[in-house]
Amino acid sequence: MKTDRNSLAAMAGQTLAAIADRKPLVQSITNYVSMDIAANALLAIGASPIMVRAPEESAELAPALDALVINTGTLTSTAAQQMDAAATAAHAHGKPWLLDPVGAGGLTLRNQTIIRLLRHRPAIIRGNSSEIIAVARLQGLTTDTARPRGVDSTSSSLAAEASAVTLARHALCTVVATGEIDIVTDGQTTIKLANGAPVMTRVTALGCSLSAVMGACLATAAPLQAAVSAIAIYGVCGEIAATQSRGPASFRVAFLDMLYNLKPADLQERLKLA
Amino acid sequence: MKTDRNSLAAMAGQTLAAIADRKPLVQSITNYVSMDIAANALLAIGASPIMVRAPEESAELAPALDALVINTGTLTSTAAQQMDAAATAAHAHGKPWLLDPVGAGGLTLRNQTIIRLLRHRPAIIRGNSSEIIAVARLQGLTTDTARPRGVDSTSSSLAAEASAVTLARHALCTVVATGEIDIVTDGQTTIKLANGAPVMTRVTALGCSLSAVMGACLATAAPLQAAVSAIAIYGVCGEIAATQSRGPASFRVAFLDMLYNLKPADLQERLKLA
Amino acid sequence: MKTDRNSLAAMAGQTLAAIADRKPLVQSITNYVSMDIAANALLAIGASPIMVRAPEESAELAPALDALVINTGTLTSTAAQQMDAAATAAHAHGKPWLLDPVGAGGLTLRNQTIIRLLRHRPAIIRGNSSEIIAVARLQGLTTDTARPRGVDSTSSSLAAEASAVTLARHALCTVVATGEIDIVTDGQTTIKLANGAPVMTRVTALGCSLSAVMGACLATAAPLQAAVSAIAIYGVCGEIAATQSRGPASFRVAFLDMLYNLKPADLQERLKLA
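Output (structure tokens, whole complex):
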């Protein structure tokens, strides 16, 4: 995989076109706050969202799925069982899935659930810096004790780089730590991207919806490519939408419209490596 | 009931005015993705939404209700029990109710829940084409094996016409199959409407919110009239909003604003029969 | 506390600045309809929302919290237990919390839950007029039998004034009854504010999101000050946003943007006492 700016922009453009073409069916078990924006982001980009949660339905749906996304926000013990059933079914049918470990590090139920889910071998783990450091700590890979404040990160994403690489090697997957700089690594190749806008931290569940869209990318590309593509798409759409809005709510509208209108040329023109 | 274009537009305008006048109390048990847009659509049109789910609350609320809407998205066995209790209570108190059989056909829990709910005699069944064909198949009325892809339809609505008519006769209710052409039938009279805009398929839960608004119409008009009115209102608002927006998110904003601002004259001017 | 217009506007501006400065961590256990707008309102104003619901997580989170908000919409018996656990934990750790008794008066499960939650000593009770009268009635403080229609108020907020004052004295807390005139009282001092716009009743869960923001204020100010500040912030933002929008959906966008952009000078210029 070529990792120069132009090659990465071209690759993200191809992923965008592949989603529009194949309309992948992406199951999301996500927190209640993010269900609306996650489904709308998937539809805007041309994927087909399905929010099935019941364990018996996840098992039945898995053969038809293209990818699964699990997000541990607003967790309950019932939801943890739903997540476990969905990850089990996806893994059994060879469907790629992504783990978004919301709130990792701070709370026991969440930590236990994340440890259990990791056994089902996600293709991608996507979190903010505090969450990625916490997941690495839960796996005994770091002694960094950075903790999130609520569900918001307290670390810069660069601080998570070592944890991300170690976690990727240990879990044999791609790891993404998002922040001002977004870090994507499969343990061998590490790519740092620098698009986005500050207002993005003021829109609830925007990271959750990024995970959903990364799931759509994962349905059409290998994990490292999928992760870079989704980060590129989100960062560039965010940058353009920020110029068209006056605050977080008009930003959200402009951002989802931009996901729908994004062209490969926009990626080519604006993608920034760190 | 006169079924020429002008009479239908006038009837939809009267339903719109009746909702604004009476502010019907509409209970929605709907999927988690659609709760925000369903409640906002009901408020925009002047109805009073209530999202009570607990079985004991549904039983207590039923005497005060004007209509009930049940939508089987994001189904769990707990939610299935909530739906059963609400439909039982509505039926016992003679309150009209609408079934939106999201995802019918593909999943066992959903099919079983839908079959059970049908025993409580909905006044309207509203789904996309694949869902209407699937409900007819579940009742042994067709051997058409069209299946949805996730929760999205794979059939044109015209393909669902025969199933819709047969289902309406069998279930003694009004059936609506929405799509590029929207089909409304009570088994005797079949009306086809042709408003709307392609971007409407890119907004999550817009169909669910249509069902909620159709529930408000059902509180003030007979089922066939209610169904046609809601389809007319949604199609005309969608057409106008599409001209005012740049993508699915600005469309959603313009659409809800249009529901709030819609005048009978807009219906008279724009309603299209197929 | 000075209660003239200019002093109150200055106080609200100081609360606004304190939230931006301290970014308080506010847990919301709120109904499913309001989770998106409540979290977005908290982020817009600079607070850090967390929507933890699981009883074991609430207990673990309480020491780190700055405030808790509990809203009884879309109640189930499971949710009632989650609320009880969170209020217990907050009270045990001396964290202030706010009760938004959605639908009080009409339904048994809701009334029982509200009576139980009151034992955990909320710092603020915030509801519409019918809800405040109903809570006073549940505590045996009034024989007024006004009931809500669904979750919407049927009483003017002035009709709730006596109930609000009596309830504040009895429960030793601040009580807020919102409506065309907003009433804030701690049983000794009663303040009436008159900002806002009619379209605000057409946006679902706007009152729930007000409670969330009042929780953020409660993290940085005493209850009476917090309540007045949040009412002032919401009323002034609503008035400005109404001039910038064409219906409830564009109003919601403009309103959240305004929460993000509000300056103390806007409060100083526009705050109105009744």
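Chain B touches chain A through 33 residues (CB under 8 Å).
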